[in-house]
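Re: that chain you flagged

S.,

Sorry for the slow reply, it's been a week of failed gels. I finally had a moment to sit down with the sequence you sent. For the record, here it is as I used it:
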Amino acid sequence: MDFCFRKVGQSVLAAGAFALLINFVGAPLVFAQAAAQPATRNYKDKDEYDLFLKVTQTQDPKARLQLLNTWQDKYPTSDYSPERLQYYVATLQQLAPTDPTQRPALIAKCQDVLKTDPTNFKANYLISVWGPAVGGASPPPDLLTTVETAAKAAISGADTFFSDANKPKGQSADDWTKAKNQSVAIPHNALAWVAISRKDMAAAESEYRASLTANPDQGTVSVQLGKLLVETKDNKKVPDGLFEYARAGEYAGPSSVTADARAKLLAYFNTAYKDFHGSADGASQILDQAKTMALPPPGFTITNAQDVANDAAAKLQKRIDSDPAFKIWYAVESQLKTDQGAAFFKNDVEGAEIPGGTDDATKDFTGTVISADPSKVVLGVEDPAVPDATILFTTPLKDTEAAKIKVGDKLPFSGIAESYTKDPYMLTFKDPTIPGVETTAPAKTGKKKKR
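Prediction finished late last night. Pasting the structure tokens below so you have them in one place:
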């Protein structure tokens, strides 16, 4: 299933953390630790000073970028290169969301920052944001390495960057922690992109889970994780994948997918769930959970219909192999349920004594009593909860004998079948023999069933 969602950069920009972290323009900044500076720094001339002043005063990022390029071209070496670099990064960061052509330049400038300050959180963070957008579905190996290195550095450096000492004045502790969690989620998403590009789906799954653990409010990431898990076709992973589709469809908060996409996701979930589980039972409970949880709870699973069918078939075969009388019962039932059932009953069952064996293993069928009165007993032979055999008594049982037949008990019986119905399946015996129960059954005159 494919959906069109906002590109990674646009979804990131919606997060409050982005504004908290990357507001460079208009304030004195210490973006990178510069190399050792001369004791006294000077402008080359008045023109360089004027360029610098215009850069600091220009609000329009496009105009500011032109000034920075002019400054770079006219003064490739400058005592104020560190400040120029930070303004380059800030300016390109403003342009990147709407101008894809500026994203590679932003990554390059962030790499320049990291040459002198490899642990710079903001530079590593920005590479994590825009590297996947630049690389797309077929990124070059060197970009994968760049993004991987930056993302890991951003994750490891988050505690330091978001320390209490760095918390802005007026910022609450809860909001500062939330900003940290939102920011950590982004490099985890970048690492998932790297892993997918390298066909390492296990690593991608781990990174997406880490991202949603850090910041649960990411509808697009829930979709990506859900798609990854469902496409494994692994019945142990598909349930979690379906949960993620449910989450993306139900979640309507910050960084959610569009309303139209949510509707499509919910429709897909309901269809895929029914196909996987075999019915819609339980789907609404999962949707309720997904409203408040980004990841499924511990022990979460969805029973797979095919697994249930396979398990039931294995149990049935085991019973057939170990119970000769039930083997006869099942063979008769299987034939009676076919389109030729009526002819089979007339030629092979009606008037025949079944199971008709001479040894203990094939002498009697055994069913579980579902209902009983002196004139009729209904049993479940194949399934103790599903009626498929009826015993009728021409003369009602005496009270003492009827009392021997209790609901829920196992009851052995044999006799001559009188009639059957195909759907729902029921084989009816009249006046059969029940070991241990005295009946008024007439002497058997039926032929032995052919086996």
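What I noticed first: Residues 249 and 262 are 4 Å apart (CA to CA).

Talk soon,
D.
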